[in-house]
Amino acid sequence: MKSREYEIAIVGAGPAGLTAALYAGRALKRTVLLEAGIPGGELLNTETIEDYPGFASITGPDLASKMTEHALTFGAEMIPARVTSISVQPDGTKRISVEDGEPYFAKAVILTAGGQPRKLDVPGELEYAGRGVSYCAVCDGAFFKGEHLAVIGGGDAALEEAGFLTRYASRVTLIHRRRDFRAQPVLVERARTNPKLDFVMDSVVDEITGDGQRVEGLRLRHLPGDEVSALPVGGVFIFIGFLPNSGLLSMHADHDSQGYYLTDSNMQTSVPGVYAAGDVRAQLTRQVTTAVGDATTAAMAATKLVELPLEVPSQS
Ligand code: NAP
Q1: What value does the mean pLDDT of the chain take?
Q2: How far apart are CA 58 and CA 108, in angstroms?
Q3: 5-117+242-306: which CATH architecture?
Q4: Is 199 exposed, middle or buried (0-12, 13-18, 19+ CB in 10 A)?
Q5: Ligand 1 pocket residues where CB is under 6 Å
Q6: Architecture of 133-238 per CATH?
Q7: What does the pLDDT look like over 125-174, one tens digit per residue?
Q8: pTM score
């Protein structure tokens, strides 16, 4: 095999990619794990993990570094590379193009590229990104000591990260567009009993305002009457969901209305030899535990597939 030819290529080194690398390496398959940034994926944006069996409480970055070290012990190679597209050659081999370099080739590909935080898409959001607008409490929370902050969203991430931000902020106001939370009840209960957290429900952000340099507040609209109000805050943390990185395949692969890949029970997408696991895959919930479980299945299925001879089309 040439230096850029592998049996299994894995795209993205979050929990799913790291688990797939562990299993593919342990199955003695020539495996490459391509990752543009620091391994760990969304773990790096999570302060504390309390629902990963065996670890009653561990920080996201600690779990990421343990998973990375473990993933590479069985021989998978991790290479820094930003994948730009994946195509399938006539013999079924996958061609993985990367920024600034020659392509990689593999018999099977496991897509574990996670996604990006969804944007609110309101005036001021782009203008003040990194200047009071953030999508990562762990990364940026400490810059807001003693300030009043706003958190937008009503899912697990918003409730969890709002609690984390109360360590630094004088007060955190959570703004949600409905009366009911999407988040797990245990997180809602914890947030409700946090004395530094208050809630503005049935309300949306119309604009993030500032002085041209930094965020100074929010213009809110309260439903259903469309009454408006201003909320002065020093920063706003947006946790309104996730957009999957599912645009890498150059051919069609079946996906749901939000772009998450649909797979069979072996985690294979509608493209033979292309698997998906973790936050790029359509599923009931996106937990670290589901990511590692599905990645295990994907790696085992990919291992079986690459042990079969490639089907070369007949010349008739
Ligand atoms: P999510 O569950 O999709 O929740 C997104 C929240 O943002 C919803 O409350 C939604 O409101 C709101 N929202 C969406 N678009 C909006 C908009 N344009 N304006 C205002 N609000 C908007 O996303 P998430 O919290 O990032 O979680 C993603 C996945 O990761 C979930 O499966 C979650 O379980 C998992 N996760 C788990 C943990 C944990 O278990 N500890 C921690 C973090 C994340 P509606 O409710 O009205 O739709």
Answers
A1: 95
A2: 33
A3: 3-Layer(bba) Sandwich (3.50)
A4: middle
A5: 51, 118, 120, 152-158, 160, 177-178, 182, 204, 239-242, 285-287
A6: 3-Layer(bba) Sandwich (3.50)
A7: 999 998 999 999 988 999 999 999 999 999 999 999 999 999 999 999 99
A8: 0.82
